[in-house]
Write a structure and sequence with these properties.
about 325 residues; alpha/beta; seven-stranded mixed beta sheet; about 15% strand
């Protein structure tokens, strides 16, 4: 079926293996006054591991363009100040707003965000809709930032941050009205098991929304290596296989939409803009961080242009 890995034996599962978000850790620290001490080498701190689609939109700007209110280490922050920076997926808050509309989310809903990063979508949903969101993130660094930012936004009452593995973290049956995920499931090595767990966590009639990378054509050997080593994709399959996994897990009314025509040109434009902002970005974050992110963006753009990589939105519900 052209799978990257359907049943990996990796010991770490969700966005698992590498450094994920070390660039973001440093950037949030410098922009918002967060104090975070990591143990990785400087090289490791510079390696991205996901398609953080929105990073360049804010962080290649000059430091004078960043919001300064709430930039102290304990200062309150308005959620709106973070929205340009904490939405690590294509189309930022527009995508979250669209998801909320498609899922018909309301204040009474309980939502699980899988692979929640620094908590941007969770905070947006809580702030704009008033629903309760459980934000599940594997990586302690990103989890710590998420907890800090949510507290400083005074959204603790509506957002619960959990640091754990999506394949093993205890999830009560029928605990949620919906689960959502943006650009995270591809990093989780056992997708069938994951989808089965998440299906059980939904109440009858519950819904899910996924936006993720997919495979539109078989990867050439070099591209396959980059998907594994640069993108850190554990499971990148055809849309048909993705849909089949949801159905096998017990989901119904599965609707898959090919987002490649939208995402692919964005990735090419993003790389161009990233290179245009080289001097401003490197001045703040260093040449190593710039080079690591450029490599990632270059690979993503090339994979799209090859016709092998694609983007997909999937929605489904449980009976």
């Amino acid at each position: 079926k052209g799978l990257i890995s359907r049943h990996s034996t990796s010991l770490r599962s969700n966005r698992a293996i590498f450094t994920s978000g070390k660039i973001a850790v440093n950037q949030f620290s410098s922009i918002l006054g967060i104090s975070f001490m990591g143990t990785e080498s400087s090289h490791e701190r510079c390696r991205p591991d996901r398609d953080d689609a929105a990073l360049h939109e804010t962080w290649i700007a000059s430091p004078g363009d960043w919001p300064r209110s709430g930039s102290g280490p304990t200062d309150p922050i308005r959620p709106e100040q973070l929205f340009p920076m904490d939405q690590w997926h294509y189309h930022g808050t527009d995508a979250i707003r669209d998801t909320a509309r498609r899922l018909d989310l309301g204040p009474a809903d309980r939502v699980l965000d899988v692979g929640s990063g620094v908590g941007g979508p969770a905070r947006y949903l809580a702030h704009t809709i008033g629903c309760h969101v459980t934000a599940l993130e594997l990586q302690p660094e990103l989890h710590a930032i998420a907890v800090d930012l949510t507290h400083r936004c005074s959204l603790d009452r509506l957002v619960t941050h959990v640091c754990g593995d999506a394949l093993t973290y205890p999830l009560a049956d029928a605990a949620f009205d919906a689960w959502v995920s943006w650009l995270a499931v591809l990093h989780i090595p056992d997708r069938p098991r994951l989808l089965a767990r998440l299906r059980r966590a939904l109440r009858p009639g519950g819904r899910c929304h996924i936006e993720d990378l997919c495979m539109n054509a078989p990867f050439a050997p070099r591209d396959l290596r980059d998907v594994r080593q640069i993108v850190h994709g554990s499971v990148v399959t055809s849309i048909a296989d993705y849909k089949a996994d949801l159905e096998a897990a017990g989901s119904v009314d599965v609707v898959a939409t090919d987002l490649t025509p939208d995402w692919a040109p964005f990735a090419v434009e993003r790389l161009t803009r990233w290179r245009t902002g080289h001097v401003a970005y490197a001045h703040v974050h260093g040449e190593a961080a710039y080079a690591a992110q450029e490599l990632f963006y270059t690979v993503i753009a090339r994979l799209y242009e090859s016709g092998s990589l694609g983007g997909v939105r999937l929605q489904a519900k449980v009976p």
